[in-house]
Write a structure and sequence with these properties.
Elements lengths: L13 H5 L8 E2 L2 E2 L1 E2 L10 H14 L9 H21 L6 E4 L2 H13 L8 E5 L8 H10 L2 E5 L9 H6 L5 E7 L11 H10 L3 E5 L11 H4 L3 E5 L10 E5 L1 H6 L10 E5 L2 E4 L13 H17 L1 H20 L4 E4 L8 E6 L4 H10 L2 E2 L1 E3 L4 H7 L4 E5 L6 H18 L1
Parallel strand pairs: 3-15, 5-6, 5-7, 7-8, 8-9
Antiparallel strand pairs: 1-2, 4-10, 9-10, 11-12, 13-14, 14-17, 16-17
Helix pairs in contact: 2-10, 3-10, 11-14
Protein name: Cysteine desulfurase
Keywords: Pyridoxal phosphate, Transferase
Catalytic activity: (sulfur carrier)-H + L-cysteine = (sulfur carrier)-SH + L-alanine
């Protein structure tokens, strides 16, 4: 990180932080880029880019397969990234399976933990606001086991209906899957309370943390879940990175999801002895450079301080909400009491894709579509929304520029 970006214990120089992100210097359609799509993927600071580049230039080798210097360097950097991630979320490194991201992580839990255990009559409980990655794997498992899926609803303002959720926690429920932060609504769910209630009823819990780790301090040990999945590319790291945390007893009992090299201790034609967790679940050559880059992203976020990151983004969100409130015809989806810096919206009489296309002509990058959350779109009775998602590297000037661009685009579509 630029050493001028911050001083420990003092206010962060956010303009210097912004300078750490090379892509934000781009122009799009002849205008300075305004990137309001961080819920889709986060931008990468120079330190992450340089770390990946340095690995390929100076250390490139496979991990855990060579005694030569490069192999030892690659292995230490890769396992060092695992340790950094574990500290970042307050878990033991041996409980952290490195993988390509949340989708793979949830599939790993679904196929290695749920598939061997569920049977007809069992229930998988999900919520109305889940991303497809926390729906489709459970549908596939349910089809193969005879289990069923039930869904806990939300309130019109986009909060979980906790009374309904707890009422749905019947003895038949074996697993609850719930997002920590909604990628569409920004709703921050009280996952610690939810996991406590599930644990009292003997229900295992899986938390989708994709939208939480980039924006707030996450202490998995304090949450008390059974599984926690997250993605690296949303938290300033490279794509194709992430992890599944699972309780040690689950990892010990779960069979491997994939078979091949690295995840074995000994292979004979009459049988195989698997490696210890987490390596038992990491078959084949991993995304070495990517995860080393994710370790650098953790270093960067740690230096900023996640409390500083969250406070900055809440300031920007408050400003964005003020600006949008001044624009006639704007409908906001999700006004829960506790929210991350995500605003899904529509403008009266305009299609979400038309809005996003015209905003792009103004240099503004927002997401449009169903956001991999079809059931949530059905709940609100819309086919798609636009989504403006902020990060700590955005500015108040950008919020005002975004509002001005939206007013201009609204006029074109009127």
């Amino acid at each position: 990180m630029n050493q001028m970006s911050m001083t420990a214990g003092k206010a962060v120089d956010w303009s210097a932080v912004r300078g750490d992100f090379p892509l934000l210097e781009r122009q799009v359609n002849g205008r300075p880029l305004l990137y309001f799509d961080s819920a889709n993927t986060g931008q990468k600071p120079r330190s992450v880019i340089e770390t990946v580049d340095d690995f390929y230039r100076r250390h490139n080798a496979n991990v855990s397969r060579a005694v030569h210097t490069l192999g030892s360097e690659a292995t230490e950097a890769y396992e060092g990234a695992r340790r950094k991630l574990a500290r970042f979320v307050n878990v033991h490194p041996d409980e952290l399976v490195l993988c390509s991201g949340t989708t793979f992580a949830i599939n790993l839990a679904a196929y290695s933990w749920a598939l061997p255990r569920l049977q007809p009559g069992d229930v998988i409980l999900l919520t109305q606001m889940e991303h497809h990655a926390n729906i489709v794997p459970w549908q596939l498992v349910a089809q193969r086991t005879g289990a069923t899926i039930e869904v806990a609803g939300i309130t019109p303002d986009g909060a979980l209906d906790l009374d309904a959720l707890y009422a749905a926690m019947t003895p038949e429920v074996k697993l609850l899957g719930v997002t920590h932060v909604s990628n569409v609504l920004g709703t921050v769910n009280p996952v610690r309370e939810i996991c406590r209630e599930a644990r009292r009823r003997g229900i295992a819990t899986l938390i989708d943390g994709s939208q939480a780790l980039p924006h707030r301090k996450v202490d998995i040990a304090a949450i008390g879940c059974d599984f926690y999945a997250f993605t690296g590319h949303k938290m300033c790291g490279p794509t194709g990175t992430g992890a599944l945390w699972a309780r040690k007893e689950h990892l010990a009992a779960m069979p491997p999801f994939l078979g091949g090299g690295e995840m074995i201790r000994e292979v004979r034609f009459d049988g195989t002895v698997f490696n210890d967790p987490p390596h038992k679940f990491e078959a084949g050559t991993p995304n070495i450079a990517g995860h080393i880059g994710l370790g650098a992203a953790v270093d960067y976020l740690d230096a900023l301080g996640m409390s500083q990151v969250e406070a900055r983004e809440m300031e920007l969100l408050a400003h964005l909400n003020e600006e949008l409130a001044r624009i006639d015809g704007v409908r906001i989806f999700g006004n829960a009491e506790e929210k991350a810096a995500v605003v899904s919206f529509l403008v009266e009489g305009a299609h979400a894709h038309d809005l996003a296309t015209l905003l792009d002509l103004e240099g503004v990058a927002v997401r449009s579509g169903h956001h991999c959350a079809h059931p949530l779109m059905h709940f609100y009775g819309v086919a798609a929304t636009c989504r403006a998602s902020l990060a700590f590297y955005n500015t108040h000037d950008e919020v005002e520029r975004f509002a001005a661009a939206l007013v201009k685009v609204r006029g074109l579509l009127a």
